[in-house]
Write a sequence for this structure.
């Protein structure tokens, strides 16, 4: 069976695209590997009417609603290859099954490359965080730290300081300019130059950050800006143009979320610099509407 659209990645961006395609009475297959980026967090914040709800609960409800439309097929699995096939595209799943469609939406998200410091991975999304708008409120007024990972980290620390007393841990990753040091001081951000050895605290809570010289910086939450990597190379297989985002390469799209390849749309974290559930859903809506119009006109 040839679908009007295949959506690769059935999370916030992909399910939003699929909803709009389904509501335009078109057939759509959503292929999803089931590992959304925010699965490490117990609660998602900032998404209207879902504030504080579990990411998996939001997605389960969204998937059930999309699946109730008559021409929607949800496929649990991983797409490994996509190529032109006649006027449309073929997509190969890990198990060898091949699906075909007239159009494609790429919405397979990104993964975070976390620094290899003991104690970070198990606290990711709980007390080690990247986005203050998503999780800063829960730590407002508490002791905060920012682990430098990139030149923007000094700026990140100035922002985080709005939520509580902040220490910037340079960790030999970044050397701030003199004007940045002055600005950090003006905002009351302490700067620590010693390398970080490990995070300390019960379970997934954070109480301190141990430095190689034996001292410990007291902290209840640590923020960092990770490098991100796309979860698939399907955009590259199709020849989609890329551009550099703040954390790594992203798929270049126009304002309709169409890539440089005719008929291929991209939405969510793989196709924008700033990441959130709301942005991903908005992108998915745009891609779904633009995809449908491209089938009509
Ligand atoms: C720890 C953490 C907490 C966060 N908390 C918040 C928050 O509170 N509020 C907020 O607004 N944002 C939050 N975010 C950001 C938010 O998670 C992302 O912006 C959002 O998930 C992006 O949606 P997406 O649909 O683009 O990608 P994702 O949600 O990452 O979904 C991509 C989907 O594609 C699937 N997939 C990947 N490769 C393939 C493939 N080859 N074939 C088929 N399927 C594939 C994946 O398994 C996944 O299900 C958080 C991020 C992190 C890391």
């Amino acid at each position: 069976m040839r679908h009007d659209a295949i959506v690769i990645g059935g999370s916030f961006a992909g399910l939003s695209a699929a909803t709009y395609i389904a509501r335009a009475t078109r057939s759509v297959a959503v292929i999803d590997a089931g590992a959304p980026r925010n699965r490490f967090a117990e609660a998602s914040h900032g998404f209207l009417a879902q504030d504080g709800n579990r990411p998996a609960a939001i997605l389960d409800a969204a998937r059930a609603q999309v699946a109730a439309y008559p021409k929607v097929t949800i496929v649990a699995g991983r797409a490994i290859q996509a190529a032109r096939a006649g006027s449309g595209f073929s997509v190969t799943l890990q198990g060898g099954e091949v699906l075909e469609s007239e159009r494609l939406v790429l919405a397979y998200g990104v993964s975070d490359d976390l620094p290899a410091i003991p104690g970070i991975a198990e606290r990711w999304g709980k007390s080690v965080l990247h986005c203050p708008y998503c999780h800063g409120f829960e730590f407002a007024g508490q002791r905060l730290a920012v682990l430098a990972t990139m030149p923007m980290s000094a700026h990140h620390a100035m922002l985080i300081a709005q939520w509580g007393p902040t220490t910037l841990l340079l960790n030999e990753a970044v050397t701030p300019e003199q004007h940045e040091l002055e600005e950090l001081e003006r905002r009351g951000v302490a700067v620590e130059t010693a390398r970080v050895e490990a995070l300390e605290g019960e379970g997934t809570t954070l109480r301190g950050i141990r430095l190689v010289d034996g001292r410990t910086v007291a902290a209840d939450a640590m923020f960092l800006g990770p490098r991100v990597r796309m979860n698939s190379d399907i955009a590259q297989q199709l020849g989609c143009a890329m551009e550099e985002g703040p954390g790594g390469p992203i798929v270049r799209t126009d304002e309709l979320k169409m890539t440089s390849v005719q008929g291929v749309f991209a939405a969510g974290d793989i196709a924008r610099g700033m990441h959130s559930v709301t942005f991903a859903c908005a992108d998915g809506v745009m891609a779904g509407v633009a995809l449908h119009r491209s089938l009509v006109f």
